[in-house]
């Protein structure tokens, strides 16, 4: 990727977001029976809408709606079924809230239906490579797009990738390109993959201002690779794009806590909360690094974390407030 610097803005639906001042939280609404963290909890229009509104009330400004799980071991959802799951939720949220709506799909037909129903952004976990019509579908609309590095596509034979479903993209990379990916560092893989994604976007005349990049944390990566990408998030900004980050409750977090001696049994309340607490720490780090959008399952704790980190990052802009002494009691 060519390294450039830009003022970070993101455009969709005749809106322009200035993303330089504060990290935005994107709440997750999985309208699925089998998502890795909350599968089945919001599987149904009424449950999904109520959950989305709860997340909005807690402070998120974006909702990411998904109708197909992409967890390890998940199965393909037919296009009509995926559309049927998400469209009622999109329409109701558009009619009753002003929240930004992204839709988590890699299928162009689902994306087209979602945009027509009111979705603002398509969150494509294949980085425009899983469906040959996706870039053109988005370009012909006024929606924005989140383009994700998908290591499962880049390294289909990697041990960390084999547990995931395949996401289309057959023939996008040649055998030589796939062989080269297997020899690259994870940072070089991200750069090379995004080169391909951006080239596809440019061929479809999809403007750069409508693109956000996601480093694909947790998708077919080793523990070291996940943390290496987190350490190098600034590269996305150097390439001139806003960063969208999804790390909430992912498996490498749980592994890290186990290695540190914590009991993270997700069948218990305490174990589940520990994974959320660690996720909140990563949100604070991301906000301190200037990540524009962080995708989260819960909002209240993440909102607190990103607020503190935003204040550290923009300390020079804060009011120079004096404080009274504590009262002795």
From TrEMBL:
<feature type="domain" description="Pterin-binding">
    <location>
        <begin position="23"/>
        <end position="309"/>
    </location>
</feature>
<dbReference type="GO" id="GO:0005829">
    <property type="term" value="C:cytosol"/>
</dbReference>
<dbReference type="InterPro" id="IPR006390">
    <property type="entry name" value="DHP_synth_dom"/>
</dbReference>
<dbReference type="GO" id="GO:0004156">
    <property type="term" value="F:dihydropteroate synthase activity"/>
</dbReference>
<keyword id="KW-0479">Metal-binding</keyword>
<dbReference type="InterPro" id="IPR000489">
    <property type="entry name" value="Pterin-binding_dom"/>
</dbReference>
<dbReference type="GO" id="GO:0046654">
    <property type="term" value="P:tetrahydrofolate biosynthetic process"/>
</dbReference>
<dbReference type="GO" id="GO:0046872">
    <property type="term" value="F:metal ion binding"/>
</dbReference>
<keyword id="KW-0460">Magnesium</keyword>
<dbReference type="InterPro" id="IPR045031">
    <property type="entry name" value="DHP_synth-like"/>
</dbReference>
<comment type="pathway">
    <text>Cofactor biosynthesis; tetrahydrofolate biosynthesis; 7,8-dihydrofolate from 2-amino-4-hydroxy-6-hydroxymethyl-7,8-dihydropteridine diphosphate and 4-aminobenzoate: step 1/2.</text>
</comment>
<protein>
    <recommendedName>
        <fullName>Dihydropteroate synthase</fullName>
        <ecNumber>2.5.1.15</ecNumber>
    </recommendedName>
</protein>
<keyword id="KW-0289">Folate biosynthesis</keyword>
<keyword id="KW-0808">Transferase</keyword>
<dbReference type="InterPro" id="IPR011005">
    <property type="entry name" value="Dihydropteroate_synth-like_sf"/>
</dbReference>
<comment type="similarity">
    <text>Belongs to the DHPS family.</text>
</comment>
<comment type="function">
    <text>Catalyzes the condensation of para-aminobenzoate (pABA) with 6-hydroxymethyl-7,8-dihydropterin diphosphate (DHPt-PP) to form 7,8-dihydropteroate (H2Pte), the immediate precursor of folate derivatives.</text>
</comment>
<dbReference type="Pfam" id="PF00809">
    <property type="entry name" value="Pterin_bind"/>
</dbReference>
<dbReference type="GO" id="GO:0046656">
    <property type="term" value="P:folic acid biosynthetic process"/>
</dbReference>
